[in-house]
Amino acid sequence: MGDARLPVLVGPTAIGKTAVAMALAALMPIEVISADSRQIYRRLDIGTAKPSRRERQKLPHHGVDVVEPGERFSAGRFAREAAGWIAEVRERGKLPVLVGGSGLYVRALAEGLFVEPPIDREKRRALEHWILGMAPPELIRWAGRLDPGFAGGGRQRASRAIEIAMLTGYSLSEWHRRARGEGSINPWYVCLTVPRPVLHQRIRVRAEEMVRRGLVEEVAAVLSEGHQASAPGLDSVGIREAVDYLHGRRSRESVADAITISTRQYAKRQETWFRHQLGDHVLTLDATRPPEEVAGEIMQAWEKREKRVVVRGQ
């Protein structure tokens, strides 16, 4: 694990992490390492709530627009590439700050992931064929049965959990537990929180804004490039609902409501994960306050912590 501490700003979707990071950049020389498993996909800007181009010009974000929508991007790959981005930021004399809500990405970088053992190719192909025949709800049920630690997600995550459990004899969460302690950073966690009604309102406002800004048209453009509806980049909350409309499975008027419901469920899973997986030493901050105030508190806590480290090292 890396020796130098690295701030890790987490919290459920729509809580305002980007706004706090932008405010923090006005106080400290930082660059963002994005720990968001959806924002890595190109052209899906609205559907993944990416920081705007103007925001990224003002504050560099690494881990945004990395791959095409049809390409799989694993947590292990993220950990490897993020380690490189972090080193580059530090070489420029700036402080890298990990920002995001994808718990698996955070854990991969902070704790490490298991190295997959050799798996019989024929068995894997047969299992993939079986998995392709299942609808997402059925996949998720199977994933939960085979891996009690499965925290939910889309088709890709559920398929991965089923595959590992059935082909290795151990659940994915068990493999992750065994691999802990092999991460490449020493995290200093800051978790943003707001009362549930406040978060639900923010989620609804964002869902309505996404549709208003052209979410459906954005997804239609990606599909027109030849990508399948089941492509990794299209398998996420906020985008699946637009795909459903474009395939005649729901009305356009229902898209924002459907996104709101799915996002609230996802946010609840994120909150549960952060509550149980980050350990005891977490700075929890009330994000109902202005981003500038939250950022100021983060800066003060970081500087205080750094002074203690220097004193101990003398």
Task: Set down the secondary structure blueprint.
Layout: E1 5-10, H1 17-25, E2 30-34, H2 53-58, E3 61-62, H3 75-91, E4 95-99, H4 103-111, H5 121-132, H6 136-146, H7 155-168, H8 172-179, E5 186-193, H9 196-213, H10 215-224, H11 240-246, H12 255-277, E6 282-286, H13 291-313
Parallel strand pairs: 1-4, 1-5, 2-3, 2-4, 5-6
- Strand order in space, largest sheet: 3-2-4-1-5-6
Q: Note the overall shape.
A: globular
What is the string of helix and strand elements? EHEHEHEHHHHHEHHHHEH
CATH superfamily of the largest domain: P-loop containing nucleotide triphosphate hydrolases
Main pleated-sheet profile: 6 strands, parallel
Oligomer: single chain
Second CATH tier, the architecture of the largest domain? 3-Layer(aba) Sandwich
Radius of gyration: 20 Å
Task: Please identify the top-level CATH class of the largest domain.
Answer: Alpha Beta
Distance between the termini: 22 Å
The residue-averaged pLDDT reads 91
Query: What's the total number of strands?
Result: 6
CATH topology of the largest domain: Rossmann fold
Secondary-structure-based class equals alpha/beta
Helix percent reads 40-55%
The structural domain count equals: 2
Helix count equals 13
Flag low-confidence runs.
none
Share in β-strands: 5-15%
